[in-house]
Design brief:
4 helices, three-stranded antiparallel β-sheet, alpha+beta, three-stranded mixed β-sheet
Length: 132
């Protein structure tokens, strides 16, 4: 896919790529399925599909995967000082929730807030290889 190719190209150009993905077996994913009323196993299957699509990136220098079991309130996509935040809304699939594009500005702290949130979850997450 285009995303896989882009991640590989960026890593080969020296960009550090970190992918923090929900553990499909975590209680948080089961709760999300309940809250979104998707039915059992639907969100977990979506996550497994993402992991399968990203499989060609496993072992690529500069790309690191971790799985987490945190309850998420946002999906965070960051490149330098730009952050895309997909705010989760109770009962709504992430694909239908609002998206915010934030940029680091002098004196502002929203980008730092989301970056710190990512780092907190990242530090507690397990390398993908450790759960296979």
């Amino acid at each position: 896919s285009g995303t896989v190719r882009l991640f590989r190209e960026k890593a080969e150009a020296g960009v550090r790529v970190r992918l923090l993905i929900s553990d499909p077996n975590s209680p948080a994913v089961a709760l999300r399925e309940q809250e979104e009323d998707t039915g059992p196993g639907v969100v977990a299957a979506r996550i497994r599909n993402v992991l399968a699509l990203l499989r060609p990136l496993r072992g690529v220098d500069g790309i690191e995967f971790r799985l987490h079991g945190a309850c998420l309130y946002t999906s965070i996509f960051r490149a330098d000082d730009d952050v895309i935040v997909n705010a989760h809304v109770y009962g709504v699939a992430g694909s239908n929730a609002p998206v915010l594009h934030l940029r680091k500005v002098p004196g502002g702290d929203m980008v730092t807030l989301y970056r710190d949130s990512f780092e907190t979850v990242w530090s507690a997450a397990r390398p993908l290889e450790s759960v296979e």
